[in-house]
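Q: Is it fine to ask for two folds in a single conversation?
A: Yes, each is treated on its own. Send the first.
Q: Here.
A: Result:
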Amino acid sequence: MPKVGMEPIRRKQLIEATQACIGEVGFGATTVQSIAKRAGVSAGIIAHYFGNKMGLLEATMRELLQQLKVELIERLGSSATPRDRINAIIDTNFSKTQTNALAAKTWLAFWSGAMHEPAFAQLQRINKMRLHSNLKYSFKELGLADPDHAAASLSALIDGLWLRGALSPEGIDVDRCVDLCCRHAELLIQAG
């Protein structure tokens, strides 16, 4: 039986080990045993907390999504205008917690799994709706005639640039991606 109070420590340790293993060998080659070895625990601990490898990846993605949410709330709190909010949304989606090499590889494994795993697909729908809704609200505040279209356009650009960067050997060029997204947002605003 695990020691009382160890669960949050073990969960964090296992989530970090999962990202490290995915970063090193990819999700397909990552095993419960390799995660357990990297974390310095038994495979039984993973089964106890997460059930299996898919449960552990789901928990890892929930952690990345929670970090994204917390960062966004923080940045939106200091955003005075709708334009500031749009920039905060862009910056958050390209923040270090979401674009570092291990996070990027974990996101790619998650997106791949979302095509076949209902729990992953549900998390992806929530993430997609959250991004779209936040952008739409800000574009609506700016008086755009079609804030839904503007939000869909900028969301697609954010996701596309993120995906291209994550798949490139150099990784995500955060400054360039943020610049392109901010320019696109400005064009959408000017077009009204």
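Q: Second one now.
A: Result:
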Amino acid sequence: MTISKAAVITALRQRGQHSRADFVDRELPDRIDPTRHGGLLATLHLDPSEFAEADPA
């Protein structure tokens, strides 16, 4: 399971957290691995299950 970086950025911008959205855009890959980046997602108060998608195969 991965998370679309675009979806995370959109959620942050909707909250008015533009600088955090810019950080995510610069630092994370297009497909975010919740296992690898779970700490950052928790810091941003984002629940990975809200964004999780199956890997395209």
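Q: Anything structural to flag on that second result?
A: Two points. The chain has four helices and three strands. Strands lie at 2-4, 31-32, 52-53.
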